[in-house]
Amino acid sequence: MAADLSQIVKAYDVRGVVPDQWDESLAELFGAAFARVTGANAIVTGHDMRPSSPGLARAFARGAARLGVDVTEIGLCSTDQLYYASGALDLPGAMFTASHNPAQYNGIKMCRAGAAPVGQDSGLTEIRELVERWSESGAPEPAAQVGTITQRDTLEDYAAHLRSLVDVSAIRPLKVVVDAGNGMGGHTVPTVLTGLPVDLVPMYFELDGTFPNHEANPLDPANLVDLQKRVREEGADLGLAFDGDADRCFVVDEHGEPVSPSAITALVAARELARHGGQGVIIHNLITSWSVPEVVGENGGTPVRTRVGHSFIKAEMARTGAIFGGEHSAHYYFKDFWNADTGMLAALHVLAALGGQDGPLSALVAQYDRYTGSGEINSTVADQAACLTALKAAYAEREDVTLDELDGLTVTAADWWFNVRPSNTEPLLRLNAEAKDAATMAEVRDEALRIIRG
């Protein structure tokens, strides 16, 4: 009986419950399929701290080696450390992680050489088809010459590469609280910050894939509460929170107040433009703040608006030669990091910006945080398409707004905008609204929700 992979092969990765939905035997087939689809002679693998990760990663390596592919295992790592290895070694890569999902989940994020993404339209569909076929008919015949499996430590090289991209030589001493959420930030942060004038206050640095303290998902405000409290108690300059695989970084200021990822995108964009001579393309998705394209333009850059999702960001970065890209979800992409996302590099930019002047972080980011946003508001609906049609009809006749459908529906007026996008995996519509003041934002948000929720 062929395995049913429809529930675990997503748009950009593999994700499911272990061992109920997938296990090491399937991981071995994924390794063979990855080797076949990429056509590589060698690949690199890494894994997070989940209890199931080492076994799954080793099974994947066996599957690839069976087809004659040499495998370099970098072991425990963050997702952006795997991207570093893929870029620096010029090899396709596979990272075993379920990011911020609960402990019973695991997954595979795959990329081609140079950290180029593998998704539904770039190899993942073919990988799924091979695994389904082989799970029914048996694994493919081994190559005449089976590949080797060797280990390599890339943590120091990864940290040195990040530090080479941000000038932190002249920053003032800073007290920084870091909440790793028992995820891979506890592994990478101490090495990356080595040698910097940083008084590091660690929280939940013990690697524990059962997440005993809180979910490693800083996008949920409940998971920032401990960090916010500790920043205030310590009188720290800022706090950083990483998700489970440490590819996303969230920032709180000296008051423990969250700094919007849009403000961080604008701050890093200004710094990257300065580093590239005051010119370059900056990518931002359509639900980042108006502040982002404004700051980009003020600093000599060209803003390019995209759909939400890392595959669209990375595709646009490659197409336009962009130097940086940012999303509302705290994913930050850098040309000098093979167009891949790394929250750690964004964190170094924040430390450099804050440490390069005397004021507090709240004052520094105020110039990049010019509007009032609603945050993402989800509504469960019976018919996504019908709701979007009703929304479009409600605003289509108004002369003071423009409509576009790049990703869901965006309605834009002189001093506000909102976007409504359907979830790809759940019966939800996601609303984001922004305006020049809080009262206008609330009015726009509530009007849109009345239509969405009937």
Automatic annotation (TrEMBL):
Name any cofactors this protein relies on: Mg(2+)
- Quote the CDD domains the UniProt record gives: PMM_PGM
Q: What GO terms in the biological process aspect are recorded for it?
A: carbohydrate metabolic process
Q: Which Gene3D superfamilies match?
A: Alpha-D-Glucose-1,6-Bisphosphate, subunit A, domain 3, Alpha-D-phosphohexomutase, C-terminal domain
- Show where the Alpha-D-phosphohexomutase alpha/beta/alpha domain sits: 7-135, 156-256, 266-371
| Annotated keywords | Isomerase, Magnesium, Metal-binding, Phosphoprotein
MF terms (GO), sorted A to Z: intramolecular phosphotransferase activity; metal ion binding
Domain of life from the UniProt record: Bacteria
InterPro entries, alphabetically? A-D-PHexomutase_a/b/a-I, A-D-PHexomutase_a/b/a-I/II/III, A-D-PHexomutase_a/b/a-II, A-D-PHexomutase_a/b/a-III, A-D-PHexomutase_C, A-D-PHexomutase_C_sf, Alpha-D-phosphohexomutase_SF
Asked whether the keyword Magnesium is assigned, the reply is yes
Q: Which Pfam families does the protein's record reference?
A: PGM_PMM_I, PGM_PMM_II, PGM_PMM_III, PGM_PMM_IV
Q: Which residues form the Alpha-D-phosphohexomutase C-terminal domain?
A: 376-449
Task: State the family it belongs to.
Answer: Belongs to the phosphohexose mutase family.
Q: Mind telling me what this protein is named?
A: Phosphomannomutase/phosphoglucomutase
State the encoding gene: manB
